[in-house]
Fold these 2 entries.
Entry 1:
Amino acid sequence: LRAHDDILGPLGSLFAAAGHELYLVGGSVRDALLGRLSSDLDFTTNALPEHVQALLAGWADHQWDTGIDFGTVSAVKHGRQIEITTFRSDKYDRVSRNPIVQYGSTLEDDLVRRDFTLNAMAVRIGPDGAGEFVDPLGGLDALLEGVLDTPTTPEASFDDDPLRMLRAARFVAQLGFTMLPRVRAAIENMAEQIDRITVERVTAELDKLILGEFAVDGIDALCETGIAARILPEVPAMTLEIDEHHQHKDVYQHSLTVLQQAIDLEDGDPDLVLRWAALLHDIGKPDTKRNEPGGGVSFHHHEVVGAKMVRRRLRALKFPKKLTDDIAQLVFLHLRFHGYGKGQWTDSAVRRYVTDAGDLLPRLHKLVRADCTTRNKRRAASLQATYDDLERRIAALAEQEDLARVRPDLDGNAIMELLGIPAGPQVGEAWKFLKELRLDRGPLSREDAEKELLAWWAAKS
Ligand code: ATP
Ligand code: MG
């Protein structure tokens, strides 16, 4: 915590001088003990929010009160965000189950209503930032053992806030911890209660889960406990589906393998788009098979169905449009490579592959390579070699032309001038024609492009 002395010191003195208690709590304490303290600091206090506001007024660089209804005052100091929440002891509305915010009088009340014991540790911050570790619920033991347990019974806790069931899987994914058997059993019994939670809260946790270092374990926990069946049903539906090569028996296990492979191929930061695409890349398989009972699944059909299913699910989860589009596009494109027998693609096919991927190309490379891992080592090696070949083709073509930005050889103005037409839908059609031509044949001379366009125009009218 030394790294935060410049905040803890003055803040501790400020609260002590006013006669209030101040504790660092929750994720901040957990992460500090794990040696991965984030830059944001969460505190709890017995001071009421208006007192906290008054205390911070002369000290923080900036403060705001969006969380004031929940007793939280937020501020920024030295570029770091701090949140100070008045002790809470929530009651839950028996009908709506929404929390009724009530201020508690003791730290213990506040800690016991938290989600897991490892998130219910505190450090009392005295004057000049002197710290004293407070852990009435055994959070440190849980942390050392790597287990998730609830402060009260898991049933009571999850009944109060079912989101905690999803948070359990999220912490599995972030920390690599395991749920205590009683926690897991309660989730299995209560999984459908997750339906009470708003989509926004669910999605925020899902994102954190899939970005976790142990994302595969987190997804597996979601599926095994039955939570996934409520919020991401297509993923557990892949269990025991046999894929068309009969190579990996279980498309679900294969999806987890590909997710792990994709994570291993990341360079640096966790890649949300790549991870979702890896998890969902074969989402269309079960459906494709149901719709084509005769067997023989065409790649194309699978691509279209898969991308559609991805869109439907991610839209339901209210993912941002760009994120949804990118993930769906990767799922759509990931199989095309399997039509690439070594060197068989025309330049046109290579161009279309690069153009359709656009900015996603580096991720597409990773996704396809992650997918080229079958149980059969020799087949996997041969697939990788074939993909090496495709990447070489792309690089070679990129030396001859600007592959990253394939555009028609004539722009809108040139089209209007040549055809003698005003701006309008016909210009768009001509532009599209030229773009297709450019994809098929590569860069044309201006003369050839004009000749082709005039021939197209004459055939049209
Ligand atoms: P991170 O900020 O890294 O995502 P965190 O543990 O800090 O992880 P937050 O959502 O920021 O998670 O919550 C801060 C703290 O508030 C938690 O550590 C926990 O003590 C408590 N908390 C958060 N959500 C809940 C919940 N649904 N039920 C009970 N306690 C919660
Ligand atoms: Mg936090």
Note: The chain is about 55% helix and 10% strand.
Entry 2:
Amino acid sequence: DHTNADTLRTPIVAVLGHVDHGKTSLLDTIRGSAVSEGEAGAITQHIGATDIPLDTISGMAGDLIDPTDFDLPGLLFIDTPGHHSFSTLRARGGALADIAVLVVDVNDGFQPQTEEAIDILRRTGTPFVVAANKVDTTPGWNPQDGQPIQRSLAAQSERAESMLNENLYEIIGQLSDAGFSADLYWRVQDFQKNIGVVPLSALTGEGVPDLLTVLMGLSQRFMKEEMAIDVQGPGEGTVLEVKDERGFGATIDTVVYDGVVRNGDQIVVGGQDDPIVTEIRALLQPRPLEEIRTEKKFEKVAEVGAAAGVKIAAPDLDRAMAGAPVRVVRDRPLEEVIAEVEAELAEIEVDTAEDGVVVKADTLGSLEAMANALREAEVPILRAEVGDIAPRDIAVAETANQDEHKAILGFNVDLLANAESELESADVKLFTNDVIYQLIEDYETYVEEKQR
Ligand code: GTP
Ligand code: MG
């Protein structure tokens, strides 16, 4: 029933995983096979996301999918670089992504950022599947380009298949250690109770049809109600990144998950101090690949409807925060919308103490994740903020009472040039890392050594 597609929005699929495990390659392959299906025109590239319509997905999945079983319009994939905190992917009431693909290199298994992704998926209750990637690197592998995984497995030697199985069961065991019961996806009866593992190769495309099938099935079965939105309502979204763009100044790369955003709309955006109230000057989408060579990277569009990624250009966005809410005001009182944004920001506010460490993180979501991890480790926080490490942070850290608290913990942030000399002369210890638990472990080791 395709008329439903007018009111059901596209599910948002986050692709997560450890650095180099193949997230971008997997998306490239999905895009590439769509292109070779002769459906290149159907794929729309968004800011930070790729929209693949249902017809294209069913074309790629071949006989694994019957498109008449589905009425969702397709899938919107968001790529998250492994070094960047995907904890930005938050939205009103929890996770921005409706569903996630956790990419794990079959040979490497779980790695630090895999563990972090799992923690966030657990905390936000986001349904996910595991893409056990790079099966083609199994010694003696006989590649079956683009084929469903069962067909590919049938073409392997017994030895290659058993080597792959060993790696797959290792991953299933690691998922179980993390508290998730998992199995190879074709053995999973109930995807609400068990995590499906899809063996695949982003390089050869084998197993990719299976992944698309599982994703469509999951979103159709468990999320249809959440996908029903007022497509003409005032837009709601989340800032993925704040970026300076030549000719536009500070812009926000935004994922819109509800309603519609129009050029000229008044919006309220979560800022580092107060909410920012501004008016949209331009809505920007990447130009098709062949046009990117030209000077202009973007195309101006009049409106975007959920779900979509879009770059918003507007005055005063330089104090916007990654992970913060974006709300279109439209026919509502401005004060009401400001209060909404404030309430959402308050949800993420970190409990601070009289004495403790200074925490800096790249996004609101990662700040929240840091605060949770520090609470568990019983490390008090004096101040927690989004942004790079500035002289002011060093001054604040110096005011801590206990010596062990004269420390700054920076997650995915830089030390600003003008803070370097200050740090040298101050009695403050700086820890930076892009893995939360390693950052906290480093700090704990330092405290233990100090106490010795
Ligand atoms: P970050 O964005 O840095 O976190 O990495 P990523 O997860 O996006 O990984 P990416 O797709 O950039 O792949 C990392 C490397 O693994 C590249 O050299 C890819 O060519 C390679 N790779 C990815 N998938 C496969 C696969 O299925 N098989 C093989 N043999 N190599 C792969
Ligand atoms: Mg990548």
Note: Residues 17, 19-25, 81-82, 133-134, 136-137, 201-203 surround guanosine-5'-triphosphate (ligand 1) (CB under 6 Å).
